[in-house]
Each structure stands twice: as C-alpha cells, then as structure tokens.
Amino acid sequence: MWIRNAEAKDLPFIKEIENDAIIHTTAIFDLEEKSLADKEKWFENLHGVYPILVAEWEEEVAGYGYLSPYNDKLAYQTTAELSLYVNRNYRGYGVGHGLMKALLEKARDYQFHSIISLITEGNEASERLHDKYQFSHVGTLKEVGNKFDEWQNVKLYQWIGID
User: Fold this and answer.
1) Predicted TM-score (pTM) above 0.90
2) 98 near 3, Cβ under 8 Å?
C-alpha cells in the first residue's frame, strides 16, 4: 500500500468510494450520490489548501482521507475536520490506519492544533481507529441526522496536536 497526495486522476475512484458510503452506510449524511463534476469542484476547493490523500493498492485507490475547514470563522483556522473512507473491498487490511497516520502527520505539517472527526454512532470500526490514534470522545450530538428513516446520533472526536 502506498499513501500519496490525491491527484485529479483519482477523482473517479474517490467518487465511487463516496457514493458507496452514501448509498449503503450512515458514515456520510449525504442522501444523493455525487457526480464527477461535484468531486472536481470539491477537489479544486481543497487541493493545495488542505491535504487530500489516497491509499493506493496495486494501482487501485483503496481509500482516501482529507482535512477540511472545521468552521470558516477565523479563530478556527488551526482546527480542521478529518474525513476518511475505505473502499469496501479493502476494509480490514490496514488502509484506514495508513491514511489516519499520514493525515495526522500532514496535520502537523500544516500546523493544525486540533482535529475534529464526526462519527455516526454505531460505526465501531471508526471509533476504534480514532481511539488508537489518541482521539478523545468529547461529546455526542443526539438525533442530528435522519438517514434510512432513522434518527442518527453523531459522536464528536477530537485530537490535539503537539505544539
């Protein structure tokens, strides 16, 4: 497995992974699939400003992760939100761990002090991954999303970088 900066050529694979999560899981609260144009706009907005990484496995994108603005207010500029998704065919092979480690290294490089992750309650694999990398569960937002005709709770996880 090779972790590298995402490139425009990766966007069709990123779109596939994201759309699979939209259709089949509560890991992402979008209700409609994304188009390639949607992902191109997303990439243009973040690329070069925030890190976007892919895990490549035998020339296939096995997962991706990125940091994005937590909040647009200026006082939050040293805080970012972390998002990480793994292709269902590569779950259990350490792809999430590789991406998490690389994203936290990038967070230090970009001088982020705090990283926030939003995890839908019941996503135990994601919770374990965050626990392994010293994220703290700092609260739960009750019934903030409705997906698959069920109210979803979202757990807030936070990582504080070393200054």
Assistant:
1) yes
2) yes
